[in-house]
């Protein structure tokens, strides 16, 4: 029997163990209305099969204007700029046009060419870190690595990268709406200025390429370029940092796994990363969608116009899809995990994220094979509905404690 009472999900229990809290909800039924910590409510989809279906079902849309009757659509402002121009927040045909413009920069082949640059960044971040006192791996390695990679890809100068990391952390964390809007405004003002600089002095990075495309007659406004750069920054670094951190956290709790991966060949390491993606699910809940009509889930109706979130974490731990799902199991068949989403919005940066994680773990384990925890585990999770992350992860690089 499905229990449809609104469920208090995001409580202390959730932050202690999101998978247990989500598991209970999934047991109770396929969709639930839950309160969001920052206010408001959303429906949450918990089962693997439904999660996959929702992400490829055109009845679930990103732009909520599409859920309104035709005659009212033009009269609502929609998502404020520059968010409104992000492909992640749009449906076809706008989404299709924007995605086509950047997809070439993220093909497996283009991404593979970035490997030497990523190896250099990883090695230089580890150089000079103390081996015998706790180092916060999140701040020293997991965050700056993908930030540097995406900034390089876009053409953001090195000296501005710390500011990016901070703006984006504030925007993703539940730090309150005022702080988040302020960070959003700072980042978009910075990017507007950067686009002007690139117009005057183009380079061979992505922002210049997008400017060139728009000057060749494609319909790409300055706001759309800013939105694209912002999306890539936000989508590309916190997530990858979380994947790296969750892999290391798992190894700190299981030195045999650490030793095994330190000695692993590329295939085994890549397989481990897929299991870290499934088991840790860096994006716990995929960003919002809206129901454009009433949709029935096993007798529970999500009404037209309702906000809907897909819990990728719940789906990736659904025992109907993965046996013994809460256990990290090296070598299991992870095919079909939903950590990168599914359907039209499937993660554009999936190959890049996989490569960054592989290089990050390989470089770390080569340099510090005896790495251990620098504090009691588990460490506290960040209070973010979207990312399944740790605020900090102290490690002793040379081991012992
Ligand atoms: C979309 C996960 C890394 C760029 C998504 C979505 C997920 C996801 C679940 C779908 C969201 C939805 O359907 O609402 C992840 C994870 C990552 C990661 C777990 C790291 C482990 C990256 C990187 C980049 C990136 C490195 C780029 C540099 C994007 C973009 C979208 C997206 C642009 C929107 C695609 C669209 O709307 O068509 N990602 N991502 N992601 N991701 Fe990632």
TrEMBL record:
Keyword Nucleus: no
Key words of the record: Heme, Iron, Metal-binding, Monooxygenase, Oxidoreductase
Family matches, as InterPro entries: Cyt_P450, Cyt_P450_B, Cyt_P450_CS, Cyt_P450_sf
Keyword Cytoplasm: no
Tree of life domain: Bacteria
Family: Belongs to the cytochrome P450 family.
Annotated protein name in UniProt: Cytochrome P450
Organism of origin: Actinomycetospora flava
Lineage, top ranks: Bacteria, Bacillati, Actinomycetota, Actinomycetes, Pseudonocardiales
């Amino acid at each position: 029997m499905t229990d449809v009472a609104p469920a208090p999900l995001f409580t202390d229990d959730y932050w202690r163990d999101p998978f247990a809290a989500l598991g209970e909800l999934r047991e109770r039924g396929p969709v639930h209305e839950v309160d969001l910590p920052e206010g408001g409510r959303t429906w949450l989809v918990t089962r693997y099969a439904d999660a996959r279906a929702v992400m490829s079902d055109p009845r679930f849309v990103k732009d909520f204007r599409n859920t309104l009757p035709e005659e009212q659509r033009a009269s609502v402002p929609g998502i404020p700029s520059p968010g409104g121009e992000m492909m992640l927040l749009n449906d076809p045909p706008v989404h299709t046009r924007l995605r086509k413009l950047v997809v070439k920069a993220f093909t497996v082949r283009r991404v593979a060419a970035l490997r030497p640059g990523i190896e250099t960044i990883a090695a230089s971040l580890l150089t000079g870190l103390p081996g015998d006192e706790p180092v916060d791996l999140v701040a020293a390695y997991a965050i700056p690595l993908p930030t540097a990679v995406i900034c390089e890809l876009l053409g953001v100068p090195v000296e501005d990268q710390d500011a990016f990391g901070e703006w984006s952390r504030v925007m993703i964390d539940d730090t309150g709406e005022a702080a988040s809007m302020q960070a959003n405004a700072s980042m978009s003002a910075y990017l507007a200025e950067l686009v002007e600089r690139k117009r005057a002095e183009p380079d061979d990075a992505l922002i210049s390429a997008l400017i060139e495309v728009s000057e060749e007659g494609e319909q790409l406004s300055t706001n759309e370029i800013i939105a694209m750069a912002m999306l890539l920054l936000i989508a590309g670094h916190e997530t990858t940092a979380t994947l790296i951190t969750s892999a290391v956290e798992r190894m700190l709790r299981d030195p045999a796994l650490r030793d095994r991966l330190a000695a692993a060949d590329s295939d085994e390491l890549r397989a481990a990363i897929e299991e870290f993606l499934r088991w840790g699910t860096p994006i716990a809940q995929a960003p919002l969608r809206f129901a454009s009509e009433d949709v029935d889930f096993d007798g529970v109706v999500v009404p037209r116009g309702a906000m809907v979130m897909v819990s990728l974490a719940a789906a990736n731990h659904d025992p109907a899809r993965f046996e013994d799902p809460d256990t990290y199991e090296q070598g299991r068949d992870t095919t079909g995990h939903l950590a990168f989403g599914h359907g039209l919005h499937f993660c554009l940066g999936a190959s890049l994220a996989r490569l960054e994680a592989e290089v990050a773990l390989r470089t770390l384990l080569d340099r510090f094979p005896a790495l251990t925890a620098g504090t009691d585990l588990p460490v506290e999770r960040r209070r973010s509905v979207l990312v399944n992350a740790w605020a900090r992860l102290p490690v002793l690089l040379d081991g012992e404690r």
